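Practice problem 4.
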């Protein structure tokens, strides 16, 4: 047992350390959220993120947030819904970051509809739609007149609106930030390679067989890495139905509605501004087969899209992040006018 004097000294030391800990709270201008190391690597190589902050509750694989002195921080959640929601929650409730004025950029790779994009293309999302909160019936057992086995919760057939919900099925991102991010980044020079050029040539029309470009279209989140034209058609119809015809499905990925749910709850708690969140996905693969392939062949093919996709998530995302940081006076109170 400590002597009384020693106990008092220990308490005094703890109290004196509290203001210092508070003073060290990071106030990022931009927080980038990536999902795995391949997405994070271009940010670490392209930026001087010399300050590493260990955050309790992050993935053991990615336990630190990397920041620079200008106000940019990058975190990695690890893949999938459970990791995304857990890691984002750990950061926002850690008391190590003040995110009340921070712009948050989710930037990662995805599958893409060849009618909306191609390998390496970059897509800013207006809507993120959960593709997993639903009923599924095996296609081999569906009614002959059903387009798919995808049925909304509580509904009796495809196309019917859900009768009950979890409340996290659809998120709409801020329109002003979406349009500003697109305007800033639409002319960014995108990476490409010979393998991706050769692979995309199997698709019969643009944009699938064209050079990568930046666009606005919407994303479906689901833990299951699905693939193939029949499922893709169902996911497109699902996105349209869940947003009353407003969404234009183009990319599919494994985390965004989970990350956005954690951020939405933090916003409701007054810890951040949900209108300062942007969502960028770049195409590493097509979501369906080319005319000369089976779905299984397409799923296992080496398309060459991974390199351009990870590079372009950084190129496009960094263009917006740098614009915010370098013109903070113009962004601090909200998205500047176009």
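Answer key:
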């Amino acid at each position: 047992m400590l002597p009384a004097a020693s106990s008092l000294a220990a308490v005094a030391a703890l109290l004196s350390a509290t203001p210092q800990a508070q003073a060290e709270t990071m106030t990022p201008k931009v927080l980038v959220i990536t999902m795995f190391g391949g997405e994070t690597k271009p940010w670490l190589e392209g930026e001087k993120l010399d300050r590493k902050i260990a955050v309790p509750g992050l993935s053991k694989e990615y336990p630190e947030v990397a920041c620079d002195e200008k106000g940019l921080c990058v975190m990695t959640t690890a893949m999938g819904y459970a990791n995304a929601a857990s890691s984002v929650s750990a950061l926002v409730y850690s008391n190590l970051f003040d995110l009340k004025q921070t712009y948050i950029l989710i930037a990662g790779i995805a599958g893409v509809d060849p009618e909306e994009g191609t390998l390496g293309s970059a897509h800013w999302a207006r809507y993120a739609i959960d593709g997993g909160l639903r009923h599924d019936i095996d296609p081999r057992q569906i009614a002959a007149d059903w387009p798919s086995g995808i049925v909304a919760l509580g509904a009796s057939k495809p196309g019917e609106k859900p009768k009950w919900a979890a409340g996290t099925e659809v998120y709409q991102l801020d329109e002003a930030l979406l349009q500003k991010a697109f305007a800033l980044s639409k002319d960014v020079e995108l990476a490409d390679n010979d393998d991706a050029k050769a692979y995309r040539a199997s698709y019969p029309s643009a944009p699938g067989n064209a050079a990568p470009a930046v666009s606005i279209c919407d994303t479906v989140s689901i833990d299951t890495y699905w693939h193939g034209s029949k499922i893709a058609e169902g996911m497109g119809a699902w996105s349209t139905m869940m947003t009353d015809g407003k969404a234009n499905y183009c990319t599919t990925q494994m985390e965004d509605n989970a990350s956005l749910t954690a951020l939405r709850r933090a916003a409701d708690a007054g810890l951040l501004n949900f209108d300062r969140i942007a969502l960028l996905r770049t195409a590493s693969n097509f979501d369906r087969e080319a005319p000369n392939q089976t779905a299984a062949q397409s799923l296992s093919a080496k398309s060459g899209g991974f390199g351009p996709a990870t590079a372009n998530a950084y190129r496009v995302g960094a263009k917006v992040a740098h614009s915010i940081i370098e013109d903070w006076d113009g962004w601090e109170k909200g998205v500047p006018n176009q």
